[in-house]
Every structure is written in C-alpha cells, then in structure tokens.
Amino acid sequence: MKARATIFSSLNSTTFSVTRVKRSVPLRQFRRPVCSPASQLSPCLSVLSRETRFIHPTLNAPLRRDMSSSTHSDPTSPPTFEFLRLESDEKNKHLVRVVIERTAVHNAFNEQLIAELTSAFRHISSKDYRCCVITGAGSSFSAGADLNWMKRMASMSQEENKRDSLQLFDMIYAIKRCPFPVIARINGAALGGGSGIVAACDIGYSIETATFGFTEVKIGLIPAVISPFVMEKIGRGNCSHYFLTGRRFGASEAKSIGLIQESYKTPEELDAQVERVTAEICSNGPQATRLCKDLISKVCDMSIDDPETKEYVARQIASARASPEGKIGLSAFLEKKKPDW
Q1: How would you write the pLDDT of the chain (341 residues) with one tens digit per residue?
Q2: Alpha carbons 144 and 129: distance in angstroms, whole number
Q3: 16, 102, 194, 317: most buried, per Cβ within 10 A?
C-alpha cells in the first residue's frame, strides 16, 4: 500500500500542513500465502509521539469488534485474518512468516489485531514448522497501540481495561512461548508494544533506520504488560533508563542493550541475513531446536549452586542422546553425511 499523506497539527496554531511518510522498507514478495487479508483496512488513528498525531475524519468511529475472522472451529485449518497474513516459503517448507498488515496506522495494535496475532501464533505453534519470521508491512514494524483503541479504553471501567490488558499479555506470551524460534525482521519503527514484540522474539534483525522506544510515559501511561518480556531481554538497568525517560533510540543502541542482534543498511542486506539464519535453524534437528529453546527459558532462572540445576541439565542431555533424533544426528556426524530430518 502506498504511504498515505499524514497531517500534522502545530501545537501553537490551527494551521495544518501536509507531509509524507518516509519511504517504506519493502517486504519481499512470497508466492504462497497461507492466509490473506479478508478486506481492506478500516480508517484508524495512531500515535507515534506526544507531539505528533495521525488525524483521520473518522476519529470517533468504532472499529469492528467481531472477531469471527480470526476464529475457526477446525484447529487443523489455518484461520483467516483481516490485519495480518501468514506466508509459507517455496524455498524452505519449514519456515512460516507472520506479516502485520495495518499500514494505514503503521501496524498499530487494536483489539482485533491483538486477537488475530494471538490466534496466528497459537495456530502455527501446533504445526511442525521449525522457524518463524514476524515483520510489518509498509514503513513500520509496529507503532504500538492504536489511539482509537486507547481512547475507547480510557472511557471504560478498570475491569474492562484489565480484561483488554490480559488479552495483550496473551498475545505477547503466545509469541514468546512459540515452541520454535521466532525472528523479528524489524523494517521500521518499533515503538511501545512494537518493541515489546521484539523483546518476545528469540532473535532480532533490523534495518539501520529503525526506531525503538518504550514511550508510554510520554502520554501518561506505563509499559506494564510488556515489562516482564522486556526486563528479561535487556535487564533491569536498561529498563529503568528507557522506561523512565520514554526516549526513542536507534538500531545501534538497540543492539548494544541486547534488544536486537544486528542491523543492516539496506532491506536487501536485512533479508539476506534473515534468510541465512532461518536456513541455518531449519537445517538443525527440529526436536533439538525446540528443546534448546525450552532449555534457554528454564536455565536462565536457575542457580548453578542449586543441585536441581545439575540434575536438570544432566537429564536433558541424557534424554537428547538417547532420542531417535540424537542417534540419527550422531550417526550422520560420524559418517560425515547430512542427517535425514
């Protein structure tokens, strides 16, 4: 979708000026979509900072709350979505891509996108994929919360706000607990909850021009729901710095604090790295990869002085060595051939 003209309002004047959203980082085209958008995007409103608002005539128009497009009775069939799509890869059948597609509002969340992402990751988690890539269509990865959604939440009760927040947590948790590795391909701004998604992924690669930030305090809110995922990723000290200041930062800084692994100058370089890493992951033992992800999650909370840690890691390697996949892998290594998995 072409970048739309965006209207900015001066804080000290009623005069409006028109400027264009910067050139988007193109998403490579894949030939085998698993799911496609069900309809055109509905007009919405997003906020990227305290000073900048994206204005649309239908500011107060409620978004459709019908979640039927992201629910399905048959758990074996792929769900259909309005605001995202799933793609398989002709070159790598073990890889699946999740593409957020609300480009008119820089892929910002509302309650429907939250439900769709949760449904998508629960669906792919039940399949035998070996790796997932999540990215955004257009110029942004995700600008965080949609302002229309936040406006509605502000008018609702504390209990209703809690229910919506629990659904947001479930979305991030579904990404975090996907049984196989999830790679974030950050093609543009990843703000607020967008940075929360990045934190929930196992690996992150970014375009150099991407912007990150936990900007909630700028509009009088706090990054409560995403905080456990971000804290685990970048640590308490970094969370104190970025949560309390709410300032934005670039890809090199995101790399230095461990939010992402690397950044690249061009979309082509970014995609080449994502392709290399996904191919590498998908060539590994599929069960071993899943067990390794689980191992990382559990061992990081263990103490090396706890006897249970010793028992746990010994059980894990013993089980892997005795497994059919472990035997195939060791045999192939000794015979100097590729394992058949």
Answers
A1: 434 333 333 333 333 333 333 444 444 444 344 444 443 333 333 333 333 333 233 223 333 333 334 444 455 566 889 999 999 888 899 999 999 999 999 999 999 999 999 999 999 999 999 999 999 999 999 999 898 888 888 888 989 899 999 999 999 999 999 999 999 999 999 999 999 999 999 999 999 999 999 999 999 999 999 999 999 999 999 999 999 999 999 999 999 999 999 999 999 999 999 999 999 999 999 999 999 999 999 998 899 999 999 999 999 999 999 999 888 988 888 888 888 88
A2: 27
A3: 194
CB 27 within 8 A of CB 70: no
CA distance 248 to 190: 10
Beta strand 203-207 with 211-213 is: unpaired
Alpha helices in the chain (DSSP H): 111-125, 147-154, 158-176, 193-200, 227-245, 251-256, 267-282, 286-299, 307-322, 324-334
The identity of residue 228, as a single letter, is P
| Tokens, residue 259 | 């939010």
CA distance 234 to 231: 6
Q: Could you tell me the pTM of the whole model? A: 0.77
DSSP secondary structure letters along 4-15: PEEEEE-TT-S-
Count CB neighbours of 326 within 10 A.
18
Helix (H, G, I), strand (E, B) or coil at 168: helix
Cα gap 151→59, rounded to integer Å: 10
- 158-176 vs 193-200: helix axis angle to the nearest 10? 30
Task: Report the C-alpha gap between 227 and 240 in whole angstroms.
Answer: 11
3-state SS assignment for residue 184: strand
